[in-house]
């Protein structure tokens, strides 16, 4: 049958409409990385980093006005004439700006001295100064400070590649975008945890390798900040027979003065309104016995903060603090009091009924041991996301069970939804289930997906409407012309309208909910909701695909065999597609639920991981860094591993 002029014009229109759809798909697969786009992304990244660091300050009770006045002292400066010799830690960004380009800085201090707090003030201070620059060209010359923990670098991987992967995990930056921004000097890495990279078997080799990479040609003239414990950094410098980080200024976080612990505890007591006399006993002891083990121990901000929390929740522990004769005993006593203090402040509800001291200690030790294993295998050993918790149940076991469950459920859905003869039905179900099961089981590290209903950076539904209209035109005209050749003009128009409407609806909704890089940074990610977001994403996309294909198949069947058959076939096919797609796409949530079943069987970890992690964060045992949970301090993580 010949093609009419109208049909030829329609074909040309469909081809033209397919161009914006193809462009959108290409931009989703490969986001823009031109200078203007990178500038916009840098601004969004700065806002996301500022929000994340503000959250860390709240977790550490270190927000402006609440943190004890810790100071830093300039230990080494490449320009001796610089005016700052010592200042409070919230002024560290001012000192950093005094450094000559490329600005390179080492921040040192003892365990618990406040290095991470200093890093948060540095990042937020630099972002605040960057935001004050109205000129876009001027602002692009100021890199966005991003704090990254180095514990996941194995000492052998190419440094830029590792930074790209961390930016992808922590801030959802596409690899191409992150790589371009690093190459253009638009990101200032603040590398925390240099002293946490090695264990007894590597003897500082990974940390020294990182310093060597930063001193080599590719990185020697780039700005960077490194945080490390003082003793460990001195050892690393001696191992390399240099100053550690070439061309860098060095500041040291000072211990608290003799008067500050008592002043801080008095201020803390006033803020919480406690009338318990134990506070007077402790503060009096600190003032009278300034050289006692307790007074010396509390000159570390980390230990002082633990003491304040412990006295608030379990004031009866004061006697143990006053009677302890050694600093090591005080440290162990304070760390050991954290779980009882956390439980003492927890409401006695059914949700927390099994949160006993023994159970919580076992769960936290399990988490600490797993993080140590991750570090030993070259992964991030200080923080873990909710969509990685399944690994605690045993990675191989969880992957195997997840794959088997996906295979059985997908196969069952396909068999029940198929209307072919028995042999073909079984073959269809077996092959489909096997493909889905293997795909799921072979996914080593599933990452939670997300759909976004609201985005503060733009109005998204106009783009969804445009994509929907383009999709409707392409699919409707293509289907209409195809059916025109076999079913006549009326059939072609009917099918074209049906296919166009349904396909356009699906394309519009999916495009409207798709997020750009700027959108993802503006929305941020809630570490507590990763699994829930992934489940919602799987259910939503399964429903969209099931509805679309079910209606398309149903309409086609109705035209061929009547409305009743079309309805039955459409419902069956749509449900089959929705369930199969949902099982295959929600891999992070599926893996998590398999792990939950294993946790119920072994009791090595709570059966509701998200609730437990959020409870531990709320009680000061853990904190959130970007989207990952980590122990409040590395000292506590190691103590849980070592304690018998």
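-> sequence recovered:
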């Amino acid at each position: 049958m010949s093609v009419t002029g109208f049909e030829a014009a329609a074909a040309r229109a469909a081809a033209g409409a397919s161009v914006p759809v193809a462009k959108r798909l290409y931009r989703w697969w490969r986001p823009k990385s031109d200078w203007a786009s990178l500038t916009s992304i840098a601004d969004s990244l700065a806002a996301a980093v500022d929000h994340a660091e503000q959250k860390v300050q709240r977790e550490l009770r270190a927000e402006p006005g609440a943190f004890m006045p810790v100071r830093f002292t300039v230990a080494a400066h490449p320009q001796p004439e610089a005016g700052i010799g010592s200042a409070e830690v919230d002024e560290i960004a001012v000192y950093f700006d005094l450094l000559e380009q490329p600005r390179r800085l080492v921040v040192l201090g003892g365990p618990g001295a406040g290095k991470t707090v200093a890093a948060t003030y540095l990042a937020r201070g630099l972002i605040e100064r960057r935001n004050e620059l109205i000129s876009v060209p001027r602002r692009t010359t100021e890199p966005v400070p991003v704090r990254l923990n180095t514990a996941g670098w194995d000492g052998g991987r190419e440094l830029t590649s590792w930074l790209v992967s961390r930016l992808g995990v922590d801030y959802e930056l596409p690899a191409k975008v992150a790589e371009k921004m690093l190459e253009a000097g638009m990101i200032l890495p603040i590398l925390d945890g240099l002293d946490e990279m090695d264990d007894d078997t590597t003897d500082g080799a990974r940390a020294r390798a990182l310093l060597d990479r930063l001193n080599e040609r590719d990185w020697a003239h780039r700005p960077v900040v490194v945080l490390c414990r003082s003793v460990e950094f001195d050892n690393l410098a001696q191992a390399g027979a240099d100053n550690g980080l070439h061309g860098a200024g060095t500041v040291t976080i000072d211990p608290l003065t003799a008067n500050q612990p008592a002043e801080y505890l008095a201020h803390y007591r006033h803020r919480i309104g406690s009338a318990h006399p134990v506070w007077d006993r402790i503060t009096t002891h600190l003032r009278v016995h300034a050289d006692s083990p307790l007074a010396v121990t509390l000159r570390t901000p980390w230990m002082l903060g633990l003491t304040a929390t412990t006295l608030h929740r379990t004031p009866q522990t004061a006697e143990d603090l006053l009677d302890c004769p050694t600093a090591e005993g005080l440290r162990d006593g304070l760390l050991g009091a954290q779980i009882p203090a956390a439980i003492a402040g927890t409401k006695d509800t059914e949700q927390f009924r099994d949160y006993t001291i023994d159970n919580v200690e076992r769960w936290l030790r399990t988490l600490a041991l797993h993080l140590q294993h991750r570090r030993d295998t070259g992964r991030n050993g200080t923080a873990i996301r909710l969509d990685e918790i399944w690994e605690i149940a045993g990675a191989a076991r969880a992957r195997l069970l997840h794959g088997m469950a996906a295979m059985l459920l997908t196969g069952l859905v396909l068999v029940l939804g198929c209307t072919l003869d028995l042999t073909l039905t079984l073959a269809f179900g077996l092959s489909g289930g096997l493909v889905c099961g293997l795909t799921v089981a072979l996914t080593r590290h599933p990452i939670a997906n997300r759909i976004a209903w609201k985005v503060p950076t733009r109005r998204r539904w106009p783009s969804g409407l445009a994509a929907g209209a383009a999709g409707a035109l392409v699919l409707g005209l293509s289907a209409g012309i195809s059916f025109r050749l076999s079913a006549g003009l009326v059939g072609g128009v009917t099918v074209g309208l049906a296919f166009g409407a349904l396909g356009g609806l699906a394309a519009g909704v999916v495009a409207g909910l798709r997020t750009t890089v700027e959108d993802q940074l503006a929305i941020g990610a809630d570490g507590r909701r990763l699994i829930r977001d992934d489940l919602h994403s799987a259910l939503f996309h399964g429903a969209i695909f099931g509805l679309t294909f079910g209606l398309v198949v149903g309409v086609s069947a109705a035209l061929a065999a009547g409305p009743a058959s079309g309805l039955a076939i459409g419902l069956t096919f749509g449900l089959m597609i929705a369930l199969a797609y949902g099982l295959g796409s929600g891999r992070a949530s599926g893996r998590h639920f398999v792990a939950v079943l294993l946790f119920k069987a072994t009791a090595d970890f709570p059966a509701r991981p998200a609730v437990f992690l959020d409870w531990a964060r709320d009680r000061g045992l853990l904190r959130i860094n970007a989207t990952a949970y980590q122990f409040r301090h590395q000292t506590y993580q190691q103590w849980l591993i070592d304690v018998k």
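The longest helix spans residues 461-513.
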